[in-house]
Amino acid sequence: MERRSFLLSAAAGSAATVSALTSTAEATPGSPALALPVPAQSAALGTTGADWPKVGGNYGNQNHSTLRAITPKNVKKLGGAWHINLEGGSTSAYQQCTIVVQDGVLYVETTQQNVFAVNGRTGEVIWRTNLGTETTNMRGVAVAEGKVFTISGANIVYALDQLTGAVRWQKPLIVDDNGGDGGCSNDSGQCGGNSGGLAGAVVHFDGLIYVGTEGSTAGARGRGYALDANTGDVVWTFWGPPGPGEFGHDTWEGDSWKTGGAVPWIHPAVDPELGLVYWTFGNPYPRTDGSSRGGDNLFANSIVAIDAKTGERRWHFQSVHHDIWDADNVMAPVLADLLVDGRRRKVVVYGSKTCWFYILDRRTGEALHGMEERAVPQHAEHKTSPTQPFPGGEPFTDPFPRLDKATRPVPFYPVGGLYSVFWDRATIIFPGAGGGGDWGFPSFSPRTGYVYIGYGLVNSSYSNTHGGRVNTARPLGELFGGGLVAMDPRTNTVAWRKEGDWSLAHGNGILTTAGRVLFQGRPDGVLEAMDDTSGATLWTWQCGAGVNTIPVSYEIDGEQYVAVLAGGNGLPFPDIPKGDHLWAFKLGGKVAPAPAPTPPSRRNQIRVAAVTGATAHNTVTLGRIWSSGSNSPGAAENTVAQNAMAPQYLTVPVGTEVTFTNPADNKQAHGAAAFFDAEFDTGLLMPGQSATHTFATAGEYFYNDPAFPQSTGKIVVQ
Question: Whose CB among 193, 237, 242, 294 lies 3.0–4.6 Å from 219's, allowing a Cys bridge?
Answer without folding.
Answer: 193
